[in-house]
Amino acid sequence: MSDLPETNLDAMLKTMNAIKGWGHAMGVRLTLVTCERVEAEWTVGPEHLQPYGIVHGGVHCGVIESVCSVGAAVAAAERGHKGGVVGLDNHTSFIRAVRTGVTLKAVATPITRGRTTQLWQADIRDGERLVATGRVRLLAVDPEQIA
Amino acid sequence: MSDLPETNLDAMLKTMNAIKGWGHAMGVRLTLVTCERVEAEWTVGPEHLQPYGIVHGGVHCGVIESVCSVGAAVAAAERGHKGGVVGLDNHTSFIRAVRTGVTLKAVATPITRGRTTQLWQADIRDGERLVATGRVRLLAVDPEQIA
Amino acid sequence: MSDLPETNLDAMLKTMNAIKGWGHAMGVRLTLVTCERVEAEWTVGPEHLQPYGIVHGGVHCGVIESVCSVGAAVAAAERGHKGGVVGLDNHTSFIRAVRTGVTLKAVATPITRGRTTQLWQADIRDGERLVATGRVRLLAVDPEQIA
Amino acid sequence: MSDLPETNLDAMLKTMNAIKGWGHAMGVRLTLVTCERVEAEWTVGPEHLQPYGIVHGGVHCGVIESVCSVGAAVAAAERGHKGGVVGLDNHTSFIRAVRTGVTLKAVATPITRGRTTQLWQADIRDGERLVATGRVRLLAVDPEQIA
User: Fold this and answer.
1) B84 Cβ contact partners less than 8 Å away, ≥ 6 residues apart
2) What φ, ψ does residue A2 adopt, rounded to 5°?
3) Residues 6+ apart with CB under 8 A from A117
């Protein structure tokens, strides 16, 4: 676990959740960020649906991409990596249909955190029930590669 | 190729593009829909980015999920299937970083269109350059399974 | 857990391990088979290697395919399915190189066991160390589809 | 295309096909090796089957792993990389069941050949009919990482 004092975690989450972009577009709020575990939540609204009225698979893929990427970036930073990490492959499986009004929780944990690549897994649940699960392979890149 | 007269295609695209939901949230416009090929476009804006300023992988996964699902649904309908199709697994690979202002094009084509499951592939390009590519396995479901 | 008395499990394992085919070619021995967990072991020999002298990724994919398929077949049979199950997609990640002489253990557990499709996961370990991990999506098919 | 004179290709194929290991165990013969395309063939025998009498999915995964790895290794060598390449993830989809006696052909082509990672795709066909298709992400590693 990260040894960040809780107030630092709060400050970091506040900063990260204030970033505009796709995380914001998805409506996802990070609630825990360490190099060993990332958690996030969002409430399903009409904007998340596909035409049948269930959550679009791309939302699950996107949330899984986010939480795995955040975890891998923190893990890389904690071992002194100066650049960032970028996703190589995202493999998400859909388990159960979800409709509007439900608050979902995503939890990402590392499978391997190598120096060059990392593999993270994230599960999305509606309470106890697994809704989607995915794995993201990420690559550590030099600062100039994403400049 | 579908034998839809062009005016019917136009009407169908208009209807499909008017649906609110995740396709709308992503800003994607379908430009061709047949049982053999689906095309869509979108222009990268600040809402599509991850914190490094490049397109969030979840956007690519989501667009790939959309165009493959639309193709599989049309293919299932054309062979008389009364229900819909739902995604089982989405496996998307990221090839090249993209920044704002670029208009991307996604093209989905079938790998196999079985009665029970289908496998579609979609490539996302910035002009000639491949940006992301993915495969989606889909399952034909009965009407009541998605009611 | 399966309620098979232990002697029945022993008899089933003996029967399954006597089947010639790819499991035999891989040198894998099933050591536990229930609808909730499948275990298998094999010892790495020179026939399992790729040219660099480490275990060929295809061996890991193949073992993962085997143990997930066996678990899904048992789960389908226990709910009364009369046909079999076939793999749709196998997604295996390689974590750590392994050389000859090591005995590896694979453990498969279900992620979802639906009537039509199942998703199983298998981890391969060298003692405590994770070597490879994969997920297999499987489809229940009618007897005549594999006849 | 590689500029190898044909006699050199023949010599290289002869050398590569003489290597014992998993390629040999699978019975696969490389028939073309360049940095842009790798081809291989094998004839399905009883040793390749799973208990239903069709080719075990692990065989397809293994052949796909082989031909993609060979292609990526050649591509890395041609750009001066001194180490080797190792597979990170193999994602194989099964399209059509195959029985004994059939000669299958695998063709691998690159999707992207970066300095650090490459993504290759391979299709396995029985004549014109697609039997399996997969993608392998590979990582260039330093010589000492596989020593």
Assistant:
1) A52, B73, B76, B140, B141, B143, B146
2) -65, 145
3) A88, A137, A138, A139, A140, D88, D117, D139
Which residues of chain A, if any, have pLDDT below 70?
A: 1-6, 146-147
Min Cα–Cα distance to chain D from C64, Å: 8
Q: Token digits for D99?
A: 């029985």
**What's the whole-model pTM score?**
0.95
Give contacts of A89 with chain B, Cβ < 8 Å: 91-94
ipTM exceeding 0.85, yes/no: yes
pLDDT reported for residue C59 = 98
Alpha-carbon gap, residue D119 to A137, rounded angstroms? 13
Q: Are A114 and A75 in contact, with CB atoms under 8 Å apart?
A: no
The whole-chain average pLDDT of chain B stands at: 93
Q: Which residues of D touch C (CB under 8 A)?
A: 16, 19-26, 46-54, 56-59, 61-66, 69, 84, 86-94, 97, 136, 146
Q: Which of C37, C32, C35, C29 is nearest to C63 (CA)?
A: C29
Interfacial residues of C (vs B; Cβ cutoff 8 Å):
88-89, 91, 116-117, 137, 139
For residue range A44-55, what is the model confidence (pLDDT) as tens digits? 999 999 999 999
DSSP per residue over D61-75, as a string?
HHHHHHHHHHHHHHH
User: What span, in angstroms and rounded, lies between the C-alpha atoms of B62 and B40?
Assistant: 12
Amino acid at B70: V
Q: How many CB atoms lie within 10 A of CB C130?
A: 15
- The closest alpha carbon to A25, from A52, A56, A71, belongs to A56
Token pair, residue D146, equals 């596989």
Nearest chain C Cα to A113, which residue?
C95
Can you tell me whether residue D38 is helix, strand or coil?
strand
d(C-alpha D113, C-alpha A38), whole Å: 32
Between A66, A88, A93, which is nearest B58 by CB? A66
Q: Residue C62: pLDDT above 70?
A: yes
Task: Indicate the length of chain C as a whole number.
Answer: 147
Supply φ then ψ for residue B71, to 5 degrees: -60, -45
All residue ranges of chain D with pLDDT < 50 are: 1-2
Q: Which residues of A touch B94 (CB under 8 A)?
A: 86-90
Which of D64, D93, D109, D123 is the best substitution to test chain B (most B C-beta atoms within 10 A)?
D93
